[in-house]
Design brief:
The strands form four sheets. Strands 3, 5, 6, 9, 10, 17 and 18 form a seven-stranded mixed sheet that branches. The chain has a six-stranded parallel sheet with strand order 13-12-11-14-15-16, with helices on both faces. The chain has two domains: about 190 residues, Alpha-Beta Complex (Quinone Oxidoreductase, Chain A, domain 1), CATH 3.90.180; about 140 residues, Rossmann fold. The protein is about 25% helix and about 25% strand. With about 350 residues, the chain is an alpha/beta fold. The termini are close together. Bound molecules: zinc ion (ZN) (2 copies). The site of one zinc ion (ZN) has 10 residues, from α2.
Length: about 350
Amino acid sequence: MKAARFYGPGDIRIDEIPEPAVRPGTVKVEVQWCGICGTDLHEYLEGPIFAPPAGAPHPLTGETVPVTLGHEFAGVVAELGQGVAGLAVGDRVVVEPYIVCGRCDACQQGRYNVCATLGFVGLSGFGGGFSRYVVAEQRWIHPLGDLGTDVGALVEPLAVAYHAVRLSGARAGHTGLVFGAGPIGLVTTAALRAAGVEQVIVVEPAGVRKTKAATAGADHVIDPTEADTVGSVMELTQGRGADVSFECAGIDAVLASAIRSTRAGGTCVNVAIWGHQASVAMNDLVFREVSLVGSLAYANDHPATIRMIADGLVDPHQFITGRIELDDIVSAGFDELINNKEENVKILVRP
Ligand SMILES: [Zn+2]
Ligand SMILES: [Zn+2]
Protein backbone atom coordinates (compact mmCIF):
# COMPACT_ATOMS: atom_id res chain seq x y z
CA MET A 1 0.00 0.00 0.00
CA LYS A 2 1.03 3.63 -0.46
CA ALA A 3 2.11 5.63 2.60
CA ALA A 4 3.35 9.19 3.16
CA ARG A 5 6.50 8.77 5.21
CA PHE A 6 8.61 11.35 7.01
CA TYR A 7 12.37 11.06 6.54
CA GLY A 8 13.67 14.40 7.81
CA PRO A 9 13.16 18.17 7.42
CA GLY A 10 11.41 18.95 4.14
CA ASP A 11 11.46 15.28 3.18
CA ILE A 12 8.15 13.42 2.96
CA ARG A 13 7.90 10.66 0.37
CA ILE A 14 5.11 8.48 -0.95
CA ASP A 15 6.48 4.97 -0.48
CA GLU A 16 5.15 1.50 -1.18
CA ILE A 17 5.06 -0.42 2.12
CA PRO A 18 3.54 -3.76 3.22
CA GLU A 19 -0.02 -3.78 4.59
CA PRO A 20 -0.11 -4.29 8.37
CA ALA A 21 -1.51 -7.68 9.47
CA VAL A 22 -4.25 -7.99 12.07
CA ARG A 23 -3.24 -9.69 15.35
CA PRO A 24 -5.35 -11.09 18.20
CA GLY A 25 -7.10 -8.27 20.06
CA THR A 26 -6.53 -5.74 17.28
CA VAL A 27 -8.65 -4.18 14.56
CA LYS A 28 -7.59 -3.41 10.99
CA VAL A 29 -9.03 -0.08 9.91
CA GLU A 30 -9.26 1.11 6.33
CA VAL A 31 -8.54 4.83 6.60
CA GLN A 32 -10.94 7.08 4.68
CA TRP A 33 -9.86 10.52 5.87
CA CYS A 34 -6.85 11.79 7.80
CA GLY A 35 -6.24 15.41 8.78
CA ILE A 36 -2.88 17.16 8.58
CA CYS A 37 -1.99 18.48 12.03
CA GLY A 38 0.23 21.36 13.18
CA THR A 39 2.42 18.67 14.74
CA ASP A 40 2.92 17.10 11.29
CA LEU A 41 3.90 20.53 9.93
CA HIS A 42 6.46 20.96 12.74
CA GLU A 43 8.00 17.62 11.84
CA TYR A 44 8.12 18.58 8.17
CA LEU A 45 9.63 22.02 8.88
CA GLU A 46 12.05 21.31 11.72
CA GLY A 47 11.75 17.64 12.70
CA PRO A 48 12.35 15.06 13.82
CA ILE A 49 10.70 16.30 17.03
CA PHE A 50 8.25 13.55 17.98
CA ALA A 51 9.42 11.19 15.24
CA PRO A 52 12.25 8.96 16.52
CA PRO A 53 15.49 9.93 14.73
CA ALA A 54 17.95 7.41 13.30
CA GLY A 55 19.87 5.73 16.11
CA ALA A 56 17.22 6.51 18.79
CA PRO A 57 14.28 4.17 18.24
CA HIS A 58 11.03 4.81 20.11
CA PRO A 59 11.13 2.56 23.23
CA LEU A 60 7.71 1.01 22.55
CA THR A 61 7.75 0.68 18.76
CA GLY A 62 11.48 0.12 18.17
CA GLU A 63 11.11 2.21 15.01
CA THR A 64 13.00 5.22 13.68
CA VAL A 65 12.46 7.49 10.68
CA PRO A 66 11.16 6.96 8.07
CA VAL A 67 7.78 6.77 9.81
CA THR A 68 4.31 7.00 8.29
CA LEU A 69 2.62 10.25 9.35
CA GLY A 70 -1.05 10.94 10.12
CA HIS A 71 -2.71 10.66 13.55
CA GLU A 72 -6.10 12.38 12.94
CA PHE A 73 -7.87 9.64 11.06
CA ALA A 74 -11.14 7.77 10.77
CA GLY A 75 -12.26 4.95 8.53
CA VAL A 76 -14.12 1.66 8.45
CA VAL A 77 -13.35 -1.65 10.14
CA ALA A 78 -11.73 -3.90 7.52
CA GLU A 79 -10.90 -6.96 9.62
CA LEU A 80 -11.25 -8.07 13.25
CA GLY A 81 -8.49 -9.84 15.14
CA GLN A 82 -9.16 -12.93 17.21
CA GLY A 83 -11.16 -12.17 20.37
CA VAL A 84 -12.48 -8.77 19.27
CA ALA A 85 -16.19 -8.40 20.03
CA GLY A 86 -18.68 -5.56 19.72
CA LEU A 87 -17.44 -4.34 16.32
CA ALA A 88 -18.30 -5.46 12.81
CA VAL A 89 -16.58 -5.15 9.44
CA GLY A 90 -17.81 -1.93 7.82
CA ASP A 91 -18.38 -0.02 11.09
CA ARG A 92 -17.24 3.61 10.93
CA VAL A 93 -14.61 4.23 13.60
CA VAL A 94 -12.00 6.72 14.78
CA VAL A 95 -8.68 5.56 16.20
CA GLU A 96 -7.28 7.19 19.34
CA PRO A 97 -3.69 7.18 18.10
CA TYR A 98 -1.77 6.31 21.25
CA ILE A 99 1.17 4.05 21.99
CA VAL A 100 1.55 3.75 25.79
CA CYS A 101 3.38 1.44 28.19
CA GLY A 102 0.52 0.68 30.61
CA ARG A 103 2.99 0.25 33.49
CA CYS A 104 4.38 3.69 34.45
CA ASP A 105 2.86 5.82 37.23
CA ALA A 106 0.94 8.02 34.78
CA CYS A 107 -0.55 4.98 33.01
CA GLN A 108 -1.45 3.40 36.38
CA GLN A 109 -3.30 6.61 37.29
CA GLY A 110 -5.26 6.42 34.02
CA ARG A 111 -3.39 9.48 32.74
CA TYR A 112 -2.11 7.53 29.77
CA ASN A 113 -1.79 10.75 27.74
CA VAL A 114 1.28 11.59 29.84
CA CYS A 115 2.81 8.08 29.77
CA ALA A 116 6.56 8.18 30.47
CA THR A 117 7.22 6.62 27.04
CA LEU A 118 4.26 8.15 25.20
CA GLY A 119 4.13 7.65 21.46
CA PHE A 120 1.62 8.36 18.71
CA VAL A 121 0.54 6.23 15.78
CA GLY A 122 1.49 8.42 12.83
CA LEU A 123 4.60 9.87 14.53
CA SER A 124 6.38 7.18 16.57
CA GLY A 125 5.82 4.06 14.45
CA PHE A 126 3.03 1.43 14.12
CA GLY A 127 1.97 3.06 10.84
CA GLY A 128 -0.18 6.13 10.37
CA GLY A 129 -3.30 7.59 8.83
CA PHE A 130 -1.58 8.71 5.64
CA SER A 131 -1.77 5.14 4.39
CA ARG A 132 -4.67 2.88 3.53
CA TYR A 133 -4.61 0.56 6.57
CA VAL A 134 -3.78 0.90 10.25
CA VAL A 135 -3.95 -1.89 12.84
CA ALA A 136 -4.61 -0.88 16.45
CA GLU A 137 -5.67 -2.54 19.70
CA GLN A 138 -9.41 -2.56 20.29
CA ARG A 139 -9.10 -0.21 23.30
CA TRP A 140 -8.17 2.60 20.88
CA ILE A 141 -11.07 2.04 18.46
CA HIS A 142 -14.12 4.30 18.98
CA PRO A 143 -17.34 3.74 16.99
CA LEU A 144 -18.62 6.82 15.15
CA GLY A 145 -22.21 5.61 14.86
CA ASP A 146 -23.97 7.58 12.14
CA LEU A 147 -21.24 10.21 11.80
CA GLY A 148 -19.27 10.33 8.55
CA THR A 149 -15.57 9.52 8.52
CA ASP A 150 -14.70 13.06 7.33
CA VAL A 151 -16.25 14.40 10.51
CA GLY A 152 -14.58 11.45 12.26
CA ALA A 153 -11.16 12.79 11.27
CA LEU A 154 -11.99 15.94 13.27
CA VAL A 155 -12.68 13.97 16.47
CA GLU A 156 -8.99 13.93 17.39
CA PRO A 157 -8.41 17.72 17.37
CA LEU A 158 -11.81 18.25 19.00
CA ALA A 159 -10.81 15.77 21.73
CA VAL A 160 -7.74 17.94 22.40
CA ALA A 161 -10.11 20.87 22.96
CA TYR A 162 -12.63 18.83 24.93
CA HIS A 163 -9.86 17.68 27.28
CA ALA A 164 -8.53 21.23 27.80
CA VAL A 165 -12.04 22.55 28.49
CA ARG A 166 -12.66 19.67 30.91
CA LEU A 167 -9.44 20.43 32.82
CA SER A 168 -10.41 24.11 33.02
CA GLY A 169 -13.60 23.32 34.93
CA ALA A 170 -15.59 25.60 32.57
CA ARG A 171 -19.34 25.50 33.08
CA ALA A 172 -22.52 27.22 31.97
CA GLY A 173 -22.51 30.87 32.95
CA HIS A 174 -18.72 31.16 32.74
CA THR A 175 -16.71 33.40 30.48
CA GLY A 176 -14.05 31.59 28.43
CA LEU A 177 -11.07 33.33 26.84
CA VAL A 178 -9.05 31.79 24.00
CA PHE A 179 -5.73 33.16 22.76
CA GLY A 180 -5.16 32.37 19.10
CA ALA A 181 -7.65 31.31 16.42
CA GLY A 182 -5.45 28.76 14.68
CA PRO A 183 -6.79 25.19 14.43
CA ILE A 184 -6.48 24.47 18.18
CA GLY A 185 -7.87 27.85 19.25
CA LEU A 186 -10.86 27.38 16.93
CA VAL A 187 -11.74 23.90 18.21
CA THR A 188 -11.30 25.16 21.78
CA THR A 189 -13.73 27.99 21.04
CA ALA A 190 -16.25 25.49 19.67
CA ALA A 191 -15.77 23.14 22.64
CA LEU A 192 -16.36 26.01 25.10
CA ARG A 193 -19.55 26.87 23.28
CA ALA A 194 -20.59 23.20 23.37
CA ALA A 195 -19.90 23.14 27.13
CA GLY A 196 -22.54 25.86 27.53
CA VAL A 197 -20.14 28.64 28.47
CA GLU A 198 -22.09 31.88 28.34
CA GLN A 199 -19.51 34.19 26.78
CA VAL A 200 -16.51 33.26 24.65
CA ILE A 201 -13.83 35.83 23.87
CA VAL A 202 -11.07 35.14 21.35
CA VAL A 203 -7.85 37.13 20.95
CA GLU A 204 -6.54 37.02 17.37
CA PRO A 205 -4.88 39.57 15.08
CA ALA A 206 -5.30 37.91 11.65
CA GLY A 207 -8.34 39.05 9.65
CA VAL A 208 -9.49 35.74 8.16
CA ARG A 209 -9.08 33.96 11.46
CA LYS A 210 -11.16 36.58 13.27
CA THR A 211 -14.09 35.64 11.02
CA LYS A 212 -13.49 31.93 11.62
CA ALA A 213 -13.43 32.54 15.40
CA ALA A 214 -16.86 34.15 15.19
CA THR A 215 -18.19 31.18 13.18
CA ALA A 216 -16.74 28.77 15.77
CA GLY A 217 -18.71 30.54 18.49
CA ALA A 218 -16.80 33.61 19.69
CA ASP A 219 -19.04 36.41 20.96
CA HIS A 220 -16.18 38.90 20.87
CA VAL A 221 -12.88 38.90 19.01
CA ILE A 222 -10.16 41.18 20.36
CA ASP A 223 -7.40 42.26 17.98
CA PRO A 224 -4.31 42.63 20.20
CA THR A 225 -2.68 44.95 17.65
CA GLU A 226 -5.57 47.39 17.97
CA ALA A 227 -6.68 47.13 21.58
CA ASP A 228 -5.22 46.49 25.01
CA THR A 229 -6.10 42.82 25.51
CA VAL A 230 -6.30 42.70 29.30
CA GLY A 231 -8.22 46.00 29.44
CA SER A 232 -10.70 44.80 26.80
CA VAL A 233 -11.31 41.50 28.62
CA MET A 234 -11.91 43.39 31.88
CA GLU A 235 -14.37 45.68 30.11
CA LEU A 236 -16.29 42.72 28.66
CA THR A 237 -16.45 40.98 32.06
CA GLN A 238 -17.48 43.89 34.31
CA GLY A 239 -13.92 44.15 35.59
CA ARG A 240 -13.70 40.52 36.76
CA GLY A 241 -11.71 38.76 34.05
CA ALA A 242 -12.41 35.41 32.38
CA ASP A 243 -13.26 32.38 34.53
CA VAL A 244 -11.15 30.18 32.27
CA SER A 245 -8.49 31.06 29.70
CA PHE A 246 -6.55 29.03 27.14
CA GLU A 247 -3.04 29.71 25.86
CA CYS A 248 -2.78 28.08 22.41
CA ALA A 249 0.22 30.02 21.07
CA GLY A 250 3.33 29.29 23.16
CA ILE A 251 4.39 32.95 23.32
CA ASP A 252 5.57 34.68 26.55
CA ALA A 253 3.54 37.86 26.02
CA VAL A 254 0.42 35.80 25.31
CA LEU A 255 0.87 33.71 28.45
CA ALA A 256 1.30 36.91 30.49
CA SER A 257 -1.93 38.36 29.01
CA ALA A 258 -3.75 35.07 29.59
CA ILE A 259 -2.82 34.99 33.28
CA ARG A 260 -3.64 38.67 33.83
CA SER A 261 -7.00 38.33 32.01
CA THR A 262 -8.08 35.42 34.20
CA ARG A 263 -10.44 36.09 37.09
CA ALA A 264 -9.25 35.80 40.70
CA GLY A 265 -9.48 32.11 41.56
CA GLY A 266 -9.88 31.25 37.85
CA THR A 267 -7.93 28.80 35.72
CA CYS A 268 -5.52 29.39 32.86
CA VAL A 269 -4.95 26.28 30.73
CA ASN A 270 -1.78 25.96 28.67
CA VAL A 271 -2.50 23.96 25.52
CA ALA A 272 0.56 25.09 23.53
CA ILE A 273 3.74 23.06 23.18
CA TRP A 274 6.60 25.48 23.85
CA GLY A 275 9.70 25.79 21.71
CA HIS A 276 11.55 27.69 24.47
CA GLN A 277 11.53 28.13 28.24
CA ALA A 278 8.63 30.42 29.15
CA SER A 279 9.01 33.37 31.49
CA VAL A 280 6.11 33.59 33.92
CA ALA A 281 5.37 36.47 36.30
CA MET A 282 4.57 34.20 39.24
CA ASN A 283 3.11 37.04 41.31
CA ASP A 284 0.38 37.45 38.67
CA LEU A 285 -0.67 33.95 39.66
CA VAL A 286 -0.07 34.25 43.41
CA PHE A 287 -1.73 37.60 44.12
CA ARG A 288 -5.01 36.51 42.47
CA GLU A 289 -4.77 32.77 43.12
CA VAL A 290 -5.00 31.90 39.43
CA SER A 291 -4.34 28.23 38.66
CA LEU A 292 -2.09 27.49 35.70
CA VAL A 293 -2.77 24.02 34.30
CA GLY A 294 -1.01 22.04 31.56
CA SER A 295 -3.17 20.10 29.13
CA LEU A 296 -1.77 17.47 26.75
CA ALA A 297 -3.86 15.82 24.04
CA TYR A 298 -6.68 13.69 25.57
CA ALA A 299 -7.39 10.71 27.80
CA ASN A 300 -10.76 8.97 27.92
CA ASP A 301 -12.25 11.95 26.02
CA HIS A 302 -13.13 10.36 22.66
CA PRO A 303 -16.58 8.95 23.53
CA ALA A 304 -17.76 12.29 24.97
CA THR A 305 -16.28 14.18 22.01
CA ILE A 306 -18.12 11.93 19.55
CA ARG A 307 -21.36 12.50 21.52
CA MET A 308 -20.77 16.27 21.45
CA ILE A 309 -20.63 16.15 17.63
CA ALA A 310 -23.52 13.67 17.29
CA ASP A 311 -25.69 15.91 19.52
CA GLY A 312 -25.05 18.81 17.14
CA LEU A 313 -23.20 20.91 19.74
CA VAL A 314 -20.28 21.35 17.34
CA ASP A 315 -20.30 21.29 13.54
CA PRO A 316 -16.89 20.01 12.43
CA HIS A 317 -17.57 20.81 8.75
CA GLN A 318 -16.62 24.45 9.38
CA PHE A 319 -13.02 23.33 10.07
CA ILE A 320 -12.55 21.33 6.83
CA THR A 321 -10.89 23.70 4.35
CA GLY A 322 -9.56 21.16 1.88
CA ARG A 323 -9.83 17.54 0.70
CA ILE A 324 -6.92 16.04 -1.22
CA GLU A 325 -5.49 12.73 -2.45
CA LEU A 326 -2.45 11.09 -0.86
CA ASP A 327 -0.27 11.69 -3.94
CA ASP A 328 -0.77 15.47 -3.55
CA ILE A 329 -0.05 15.55 0.19
CA VAL A 330 3.13 17.64 -0.01
CA SER A 331 2.10 20.27 -2.56
CA ALA A 332 -1.64 20.54 -1.82
CA GLY A 333 -1.31 19.63 1.87
CA PHE A 334 1.87 20.54 3.74
CA ASP A 335 3.05 23.34 1.43
CA GLU A 336 -0.49 24.75 1.15
CA LEU A 337 -0.81 24.88 4.96
CA ILE A 338 2.55 26.62 5.26
CA ASN A 339 1.94 29.14 2.45
CA ASN A 340 -1.73 29.87 3.21
CA LYS A 341 -1.66 29.52 6.95
CA GLU A 342 -4.54 31.84 7.78
CA GLU A 343 -7.05 30.61 5.18
CA ASN A 344 -6.67 26.96 6.13
CA VAL A 345 -7.84 25.12 9.21
CA LYS A 346 -7.89 21.40 8.43
CA ILE A 347 -6.95 19.72 5.15
CA LEU A 348 -8.17 16.12 4.93
CA VAL A 349 -6.24 13.52 2.98
CA ARG A 350 -7.88 10.48 1.37
CA PRO A 351 -5.34 7.65 1.42
ZN1 LIG B 1 -2.88 16.46 15.88
ZN1 LIG C 1 3.05 4.57 30.64
